Amino acid sequence: MKNWKLHGIVLILVIISELIGAFNFKCGPGTIVLLPMLYALIIGIFLTPKFLKVANEKDMSDAGSLITVTLMLLMARYGTLIGPSLPKIIKAGPALILQEFGNIGTVFLGIPLAVFLGLKRESIGAAHSIAREPNVALISDVYGMEGPEGQGVMGVYICGTVVGTLFFGVIASFFAAYSPLHPYSLAMASGVGSASMMTASVGSLSSMYPQMKDTLAAFGAASNMLSGLDGLYMSLWLSLPLSEWLYKKSYKLKYGTLPETKVKEDN
Asked: Which residues form a coiled coil (predicted)?
């Protein structure tokens, strides 16, 4: 918290990004929403030691430790939207809880695809979940971040932050325009455990249904918080064991032999 240089950089990024503002682009029936969060991320990348060297390695390490704290502020803001819509959220309670089982689809789709593209144990970290902050922490605790699983989860985490917001904004608009799904169900589906992706998706839906703006934000925020709560246990007890099993099956199918047994080194 004493790294005043880091706080100054963040403040400047926030001001610049907010001055740029959000941009909406029509893409067929859908809408691509570019949010200030995306601008801040892209500008921040160019400030790292790899490019302009405005931030050093210590700054980057300090920033990483503050991610969870800063996301708490965002989720507190969303919490203020849930209260007025609480009766509707309670009514949709079972749907909000059971939707977490849909995230297991990333395992069945991602693991075989990653293995056949040439990834090995990186596929477990990359495809066991949507790879947001709780999942990064889980992989770090179970496997360590220096191993292939840690590289896999961080790769998807970064790609999700950069590309995921755009993808979610577009896909929500297309489903709203072409599918019979209700906007409330799409808002619930937006809450996969990523504040940025949920914000982009709900933002697109809100631009199409401005009369439902507050309710859509409440459903998305409630779904996102539930995904953060039960999603971690779902990953620990179900997705990770399933990923290990499916990885072995996919590996044997491609290479004709079982992979080497993972041995966790004691520190």
From this structure: none
Q: What percent of the chain has pLDDT over 70?
A: 79
Q: Tell me what pLDDT residue 97 has.
A: 65
Per residue, the 3-state secondary structure of the chain, as one string, reads CCCHHHHHHHHHHHHHHHHHCCEEEEECCEEEEECHHHHHHHHHHHCCCCCCCCCCHHHHHHHHHCHHHHHHHHHHHHHHHHHHHHHHHHHCHHHHHHHHHHHHHHHHHHHHHHHHCCCCCHHHHHHCCCCCHHHHHHHHHHCCCCCHHHHHHHHHHHHHHHHHHHHHHHHHHHHHHHCCCCHHHHHHHHCCCCHHHHHHHHHHHHHHCHHHHHHHHHHHHHHHHHHHHHHHHHHHHHHHHHHHHHHHHHHHHHHCCCCCCCCCCCC
